[in-house]
Each structure stands twice: as C-alpha cells, then as structure tokens.
Amino acid sequence: MELGEVEAAHLRLIRRGHERAVKVPADLATALARTTSLAQGIWARARAADDVAGFLPTLEGVVNLRRQEAAALAGDGPLYDALLEDYEPGTSAADIAGLFDRMRPRLVALRERVLGAGHPPKGLSGAFGEAGQLALAQEVAEAFGYDMLHGRIDQAVHPFSSGSGKDVRITTRVDEAEPLGCLYSTIHEVGHATYEQNIDDAYLLSALGQGVSMGVHESQSRIYENQLGRSTAFTGWLFNRMRAHFDEIGLPDEAAFHAAVNRVSAGFIRTEADEVHYNLHIMLRFDLERALIAGDLAVADLEAAWNDRFESDFGVRVDRPSHGMLQDVHWSVGLFGYFPTYALGNVYAGCLHEAMRRDIPALDEHLAEGDPSPATAWLRERLQRHGGLRTPRETIMEATGAEISEAPLLDYLDAKFGAIYDL
Description:
CATH class: Mainly Alpha
Protein name: Thermostable carboxypeptidase 1
GO molecular function, one term: metallocarboxypeptidase activity
CATH architecture: Orthogonal Bundle
Distance between the termini: 61 Å
Keywords: Carboxypeptidase, Hydrolase, Protease
C-alpha cells in the first residue's frame, strides 16, 4: 500500500523519534536530566557573581554527558552532528561551517564600513511607562496576527513563546528607559507563536502539529522582527504610534526613528545584537561548542578561547564573564547544537523575504499603514500551515521555489545598512 504525503510524514517523524530514544541508555538519560536541571541554577548563580570557576565543574559534567549521548546516537558519524539532529534534522556541522565561511567575510566587511561611517544614529529619549509599552506591544502583536483568544502576553526576564495549537503564550520584557526592547521582543515572539497557531488544525496533537525545526521556527520570528518590523515602511507607522502613546520620544521624524531602530553597535550580548553583528555571535558559539564536543577544546580553556575570539571578531575585549561565556543559558542545560539554528533562521528568513517581495510588490504600502497581513498571510499559506509535513530544507524550498542560499540575507543587509549609514 502506497502512503500519502501526510501518512508518510507521520511515520518518518515517529520512526525518527523512536530510533533516537531507544539508542540512549536509560541511566544516561536520567543522568542528563538530573545534571542539567541542577546545572541551570548553578549557572544562574555563577552568572550573577561573574564566577566562571564556580561553574566550570558543572559544565564539564554536562559536556561529558552530552558527548556520551552523542556517541550513542552517532554511530560512525561525527558526535556534533548527532546533537544537531535534535534541532535541525538533515543538516550537518560541515554544511553549517561552509555556510558560515561564506557569510563571515561579507558580514565583517559590512560591520567595518558601518562602524567606520562616523555618524551613529541618535537613540530615543523620553518617558516610556510600562502601561504604554504593554499597550503598544499588544497592538503590534495583534497587527502581526497573534490570536489573543488562544494566547496571552505576560512579562519575563527573558522573552519566550510556549505552547502549540489552541494555546500559544508569549512573554515580553519592559525597560522604561528602552521601549524598543519590549516592542521588538514582542514581534519576535509573535513570529514563533503565530507559526504554531497557524498550523493546520488537522495536524493538532499529532507528530505534524508543531514547527518542523528550530531553524525554520527562528525564520518566522526573525522575518517578523527584522525584514518586516524594522523595515522603513513599518517603522514609519510605528513612529507615529510611539508619538501617540508617549508624546515626545526625542527623534524628529520617521527617518531618524528608522535609523534608531536599526542602530549598529558592537555590544557583548547576543540577544541585544543588531542584524549586522548577530550572526557573528552565533558563529563564535558554533565553533566553540563544536570544539568542546569533539574534544578539541577543554572546558577549562573555554573562557580564554571565548574572550580571544570575541576580541578578534568584535574588536573589543570582554569586560566580565556575564558579558562573555556565562551570558547564555544554553550550555548549562545541554543544548549543544542549538546555537547554529539561530543563524540558519536568519538565512531562511532572507530567502523567504526575497520570495515574498517578489510575490507581493505592494507590501510596503500595507506596512506603512501598520498592516503586515499580506506578509503574514503569505507565510501562513506557504510555510506555517504545513507544520512538520516536510523536512526543514523542503519546507523552505517549497515556500520560496528556490534553493537555500545566504545571498538574499547578505544582499538585504548590504542594501539596508548601506542606505541607513550612507555607505
């Protein structure tokens, strides 16, 4: 009997999940769960105290356990690839390394031109109360298609999205001195949330009823946040909504606001990075964690390796561990192989944006009215509704009608920041 596409996809995902589960010994799975649960709290205390030495023994234990898990899963293949499979099935470390090698020269060159331009945009100033930020955040979330009947917005230290199907919730953060963090964190999480909300109801509570990979998931959050939310057209509308909510914001016009929203600076923190620097943050983490899993980098040498690489890539020395190797939670909870999916999401978003612009030539007219619905409808139809039906690569290629390439993302970044910084 020949299976249809849906039935074959169900069997593919069920078989993959089962095969991976039975390869990991029960005692190893138990040790991983126990160690990573404890490690997160140890990391949080170490980060607050800038205490690398207090975290290293715990990290050593997590790395050793994940290497054992990778060995159980990998067969004759590379250990890191076995871990990467949890987050981006069908992608190898060699594929990602090649992609990053092609991206790095253009990103570094753009970074040098932007930072050398000598006229950084002015930032916002004014009074940005919590109530006003949350009200505008909800307005923006609903504009991007977030269904509040099947979700809600709360506050957290680190924004996130959780849930699927008919219950998908997001969080945002509020800093009364810096409202853009709240707004763009919200848009970012709405990208994740609407992906889950828009999956075909026929797939609910099944193996197909969730996003197909972390890279594809990140493509949705990044295209909502950046290509749409930080576009000239949408920021023109948002400037006027900011003035309506907060009156004076310290900027004279829409162009100045667009530049402020897209300001480039070589900061330490990945989650606060602009579009030019973000992928360089990911490349650093990918190379270091790949070396850790391969046994080419000792945990005891990680801080020095991080600091040297950061100074080489960003031109500044890390001033304290919480701005360096202790800033992210991922390694403490064993998420080796997760970081590269953030950059893959940016590459996928570049491909999707290029195809979307081709199919919706009047998109900017809608964005200038605060209406991203033509774009979100395009994403819903082309990608989101299919859930896990296809592999990650097939998902992007079916949506765009083209091979996956870093070129659309890099061309977009060159054009955008070339215009803002008059390069």
